[in-house]
Request: fold
Amino acid sequence: CEVHRGALLHFLDDPGNDPEPIPGSVEFLEDGLLVVHDGKVLLTGPAEEWLPRLPDGVPVSHWQDGLIVPGFIDTHVHMPQLGVMASYGAQLLDWLETYTFPHEARFSDGDWAQAEAQRFTDLLLSHGTTSGLVFCTSHPESVQALFEAAEQRGMGLTAGKVMMDRHAPDDLTDTAQGSYDDSLSLLKTWHNRGRQRYAITPRFAATSSPEQLSLAGRLAGEYPDVLVQTHWAENTGEIQWIRELFPERASYLDVYDHYGLLGDHTVLAHGIHIDDADRALLAQRGSRIAFCPTSNTFLGSGLFDFREARAAGVMVGLASDVGGGTSLSMLATMAEAYKVCRLRGQTLTPWQAFYLATLGNARVLHQAQHTGNFEAGRYADFVVLDQAGSPQLAMKRPYTRSPFEALFNLMMLGDDRAIQATAVAGQVHHQRSDKAPALSSH
Ligand code: GUN
Ligand code: FE
Reply:
């Protein structure tokens, strides 16, 4: 086995959203050990207690200044939109038309798709993200490329081919039956191959014909353990358009429900402009919302109501939504989530933010039995956070008096520079060259 030593923090359950976490929900060790065997967590515990009990010759990586936390999980991100990030001056619908669709069209080129998939997975790791739920493009090759890149890095991703048969350029649209066939074939190849999982991925109701939505729902019914991902209630212009396209449906959410797309394996990105009836239906169906704060502020979409969703019993995950979002960093995403909550007169504690980015998101994606915390038997997916990893973090560090403050500094001031190392299944795949651990052998 291998051993990683440093400050260590992970969640055993939802800590709530009060300054004091619910007792038993969080484990924090000022000087802790993460013991890894065969890519899985063997145990965590205080260094003082466990160092003397390690067998002779076990390698110990001591991450001084490091805080070891579970790898971040991103519940909504677009692999083909790295180049779309920071596109100026648009809201959702003109942003899609002006910037996003032309860029996604480039993924018909398999070499381009492969290079971007490699770049994307490397960037996830350098930002501390070890897993996630990912949109590809409507080209099956883009899905193939992403799963291959994830597999090469030992990462487990959940991803799918965008289904989109109308209201998009010809070089991006598929057909209802073609999208069903391609999705099914990719699903059969990739779902549960190693750590990869497939997700049925209709882009959103505006770009799918009723026939396509119906086939997507049929596929979801045929494979109830496969996730469904789509976009929902992000922008007021979008919502008006859906009303015109589906006048016979009671609401935007009712469109998805009608076509059999709302179950407990469904993750809906955004869900900003919604009401109590929507929340009640989501809670009843067990469908989840991916809260995408940097995208929602950047595109001027609106302020997600975190408190109301929680109060209604809706599961909420946290997501970057790159390229609508402005950072792949889940730390930067937590910061923006906090600000959105403040603008709504609400709050987001660092406990809750770090919970969401780790165990909470694992639960949203139905993968908490494999990832999200350091309970024995989980994959050893972890990040070493450098509490002095950027000039701002280093500036604030001497004033920091508690784990609560340390976490809050990291989320408000941190970004990819705070990622000292990222490991997937015990293997370090990204490490800052200027911040190597002290190696010893016990
Ligand atoms: N709605 C439909 N497609 C998209 C997309 O690519 N990004 C975002 N943010 N919203 C969408
Ligand atoms: Fe999105």
